[in-house]
Design goal:
This protein has 159 residues and is mainly alpha-helical. Helices cover 58% and strands 0% of the residues. The chain contains eight helices and no strands.
């Protein structure tokens, strides 16, 4: 169960966020993956990790990951940097923006996926997306289980 109506999250957050990025980053697969990751990570209910963890926003990105993306990846890609700056409306790219600006948070989820060595799974392949999420977003050492994520990615694809 989600905190927000999934088609609204898709249409009002994920699609506009990815549309604001350089064209090659916006595909049906990317939209489904970003929507599914948010569903798995927070259920679109939590903006801060439950317990003592540091993760922020619907996509539960850790501040260290956010800052590393800017320091070691985004800063070397002017077109990407400009697109993210537009989503920030002139404010600084801080991890707190993952909570206060969900379009920016969705875009940063996509940027995190861009940095991965493997291409995105095919659109409409929930099992492949669950495995990709586990390997590249939750990480192999994370507590998430890919098999448990499959129904959530399927729901994202059916939204």
């Amino acid at each position: 169960m989600t905190g927000l109506y999934l088609p609204h999250v898709r249409d009002l957050l994920v699609k506009p966020a990815l549309a604001a990025l350089p064209a090659g980053l916006n595909s049906l697969s990317a939209q489904q993956g970003v929507l599914g990751i948010g569903l798995k990570e927070s259920g679109y209910t939590y903006l801060r990790q439950l317990g003592t963890g540091p993760a922020l926003g619907f996509w539960q990105m850790e501040p260290a990951t956010h800052d590393d993306l800017w320091r070691n990846f985004i800063r070397y890609r002017p077109e990407l940097q400009a697109a993210l700056s537009r989503l920030l409306n002139g404010t600084a790219p801080t991890a707190q923006a993952l909570v206060t600006n969900p379009l920016y948070a969705a875009a940063m989820c996509r940027v995190h996926l861009l940095r991965q060595p493997d291409p995105l799974p095919a659109a409409n392949d929930a099992a492949a997306w669950a495995a990709y999420w586990k390997q590249h977003y939750n990480t192999p050492g994370g507590a998430g289980v890919a098999a448990q994520a499959v129904p959530l990615f399927r729901a994202a694809m059916e939204a």
